[in-house]
Specification:
7 helices; globular; alpha+beta; 33% strand; six-stranded mixed beta sheet
Amino acid sequence: LSIRIGSVPAEGLVGGQQLGPFLWADPSNIWLHIPGVARFLATGGHTITVDHDPAPGVGAAGGVGGADPDSIRVFLLGSGLGTALCQRGRLVLHGNAVQVGDACMCAVGRTGTGKRTLAAGFWRRGHTVLADDVVAVDSSCCALPGFPRIKLWQDSADKLSVDTSALRRVRPSTNKLNLPVAPARTGALPLRWVYILDVHNGTDLRLEPITGLARFTPLHNNTYRVRFLEGMAMKGEHLKLCGQLAGRIRLVKVSRPREGFTLDALIDALMADMAEHP
């Protein structure tokens, strides 16, 4: 993958499809603008071009612009990398993958359900974090290793008793931190379990296996930047990948209490489920 600083059109893609106010696509390219940060152009799964937004009051010829490198890096390693992986024909899940034995599990779910906190909890128990946020799955239903870090909010780090004094913020304007973890393994691991995290107002921890045709929709809904696929004419391939993975994994909805639960209890329940369904 080639990542370079260069010129990215300011007004989207000529002949492309506008998917949102700051998002354009055609079968070979995704154009993404993060106002105040940069424009990104992912091409063919092999190149990502970054064009910095200029600082306030500085023209287009005013240098690299005013965006801080950390902010650019966040979107480059998130949406930029996720898009390039989709262009390479990978199924990209929005979640966190952790090695368990000779395979791995992936936790997905909407924002605030605790995907990263769960991954950090497994890490504290000695498990290797395979991927954070962007989980790429190949045609053999194996998850590919990502960057050796977890992005944690300060309150999650406090609950895990993680010393954050030496940690860098993901972006200067956020209280989310980069937690370095042991380097991920160099090879892919079979993805054997996918847990869809949710919360409820009850007091019990619920694990509900998803079977039959109902297995497809959760994988589709938890695909990273799923609407990017529409403009790249990849919906058919994506459906095929989701169906293929659905037939190979244990898929479980995990509903935890909104209040009064412990992370250790959740990890124990998942470990027991994985042991029972290897």
